[in-house]
Amino acid sequence: MVPDSPPPLARDLDVFDAKSKGYEKGKSYIVSCSSEFREAVLALAEHRGVSPADLARAVLLLLPADTVAQITDPGGPPPGDREAVILQSGPSRGRTLRRKPRLQLRLPKGHTEAELRRALALALEMGAGERSLSMESKEDRSRRRQDDARVRDINEENQQLRRIVEDVSFVPIRDGVASRNEALHVLGFAPNSIPDFSQVRQRFRKLAMVYHPDSPFGDHQRMSQLNQALETLTRS
């Protein structure tokens, strides 16, 4: 008689138990660090009701490895930073040993000491509100890429417009506007022409939008000569 096959859920639980047992065979890491860093990690873990290993595990599970790698490694303890430990067993029982501060973490195999310090440093920054995680959907990423592309296009158009403006800009008069024809040249009118006041004002406003120092294409010298040209033509 063939025994009944376990239902799918039971098989899934068996797989989960196997993974859990494999995890229990992970590695116990000794992570050397400064006393200040260790105390900060222990305080955060206690505040969250978890272990230091849980903090590192959360970061390593949720964030890509290259993101964690960008975090500055806090490094080991500085010279002279030692903790006093009273030995509890063996021939030296009761003896005080001074050793480098450390954190002991039980995690799956494959991590480096520097990687675990970075993960814990990132957990501290997130705990202090200095960094945060954001959820981004596929649509959000697509929209962001489109926005980035539009920004690039706008920047390219602005650069092209800047080159065009520079090519067509009037050459500033060396000693400033001193005659009517020079004023006409600055405002882009033909020599000896007689534009009316409204034409002069309209041309001045258009050019002032380009050359005003607060504009992206601002030019103090050209703006100054625009003012001189306007004054010359409205006075004559």
Describe this structure in words.
The protein is mostly helical and 236 residues long. Helix content is 56%, strand content 8%. It has 9 helices and 4 strands, in the order αβαααβββααααα. The protein has helices at residues 8-24, 35-48, 52-62, 65-69, 113-127, 138-168, 180-187, 197-211, 220-235; strands at residues 27-32, 83-86, 96-99, 102-107.
Strand order of the largest sheet: 1-4
Number of helices: 9
What's the average pLDDT? 85
DSSP strand content? 5-15%
Please tell me the total number of domains.
2
Distance between the termini: 117 Å
Say how many strands there are.
4
Helix content: 55-70%
Query: Main sheet?
Result: 2 strands, antiparallel
**What is the gyration radius calculated from CA atoms?**
36 Å
Overall outline: elongated
**Class inferred from helices and paired strands:** mainly alpha
Unreliable stretches: 5-24
Order of helices and strands: HEHHHEEEHHHHH
